[in-house]
Amino acid sequence: MLREIQQVLRFVQLLGKRRQQSGLNVKGGLLVLVWTETGPSVQSLNCAVAAAGPWCIGINMKALQPDLKECMFPCACPCLPPDPEELCAFTDLYGSLRLLLTFQMKDASPEWCARIETFLHTYSLANAKIKIHFKFKFSQQTFQRDFSVKIKNKAGGNQRSLILDVTCRTQPPECVKKGCWCQGGHPVLGDRLPLSIPPAAMDQGLFGELSIQAVTLLSPCVLQYPNLPTQLTHIQVLVYGPSNVPVTGPSTFFQNLPAHLDCQEVGLHGLHCSSFKDLVHSGGTVYTVEQENCEDPEQESSPAPIRQSLLLYIFLQHSDPFTYQLSDMMATEVLIERHLEDILNNNKQAVTKAVQTELKNTLKAQNQRKKKMRSAAEVILGSSLSIVSSSSNMDFRNACLHSMKMSDTYDLSASLRESLRRVTSWKFTPKNICYSAQVEEYPESDEPTRTEI
């Protein structure tokens, strides 16, 4: 089922590619309906994918020839059209339909709901201007979810401009005032890395130039609170094909990648890949960041840091002057995905180095702030304690102890450390690039993607 939906999205993306490259309006809606149909002996799963709006205005259904449709749905059967009321509700929002494709699969299972939902969510992250409506009906149960992006950011690549969902869904701490917490993230665009195509893929007909473009997104953003302690807990890797459609299935290459990364250089204690069960419901590959054991009792008593996660996009880019037919372009994407593990292993050293560089550049500024803050805090604390302890003026010493509510200098160190943390941690520094206003929907940011936070 995912393969068929993936092919439909490729079809729409490739046909609308010229409009997107010309800089015209690419907003619109996508409707994915899935429902069951019970027959005499087998329960079938029907799917309808509809598209409307400016993003697909250049689509001509005549371009979908029978041979291309057969290539898109090799294992699918024709099915009845969806409920007209569902389509009417969709067209009321986005105008007349530009695309409606239906197909039927025999392996009906409620597990498809979570898999399709995860796939569509992953798709929406890198296609933020498309509003997606998903409805899944299985027997008497109905699940519905809309993917609508609140904050978008444009990340320009060499061959395409990416509209990313940078909305941060982490709730700010209670002590933060309204309008003083960044509700989005700031993508960091990495360098383009050319890839060599292995001979086995060439034998199957994969030619041209192939490369990857990495983009990282750290959230929640704490640029307005530079002294706030943070803790990176997860890293998620999402891979997209040349048409900006997610690559399905787990990647053995990225699952094994932590063993080849120099975590110390990146500024992390360690990484390990999540279980296969977690990967199915999260999309892509997820790493859990190992946390350093804290033996300092003073640090253990401190409030918990802000937990952050990092999203690593891997965008595949392909160009071949001899591939211009729609069927050839779709066949090429299928070849790239089929041979992706071989391609990555064929460029293992270069890809590993590129990923390490992107992680290091994204976390570098934050790690440097942590080191400077620790060093500055130790200097301030050491100087303050030295002044109080070395003073021969008993009135001055007693006044200092009294103001800190301490009876002797032994407990003064912990009290000063806590006071310093309380004063500095939540110091607010406004940033023009941050999304702090309390509005329903932010306009798309044209802020140039930085190479470094």
TrEMBL record:
Biological process terms in GO annotation: meiotic DNA double-strand break formation
Cross-referenced InterPro entries: TopoVIB-like
UniProt xrefs under Pfam families: DUF4554 (PF15091)
Designated name of the protein: Type 2 DNA topoisomerase 6 subunit B-like isoform X2
Gene giving rise to this polypeptide: top6bl
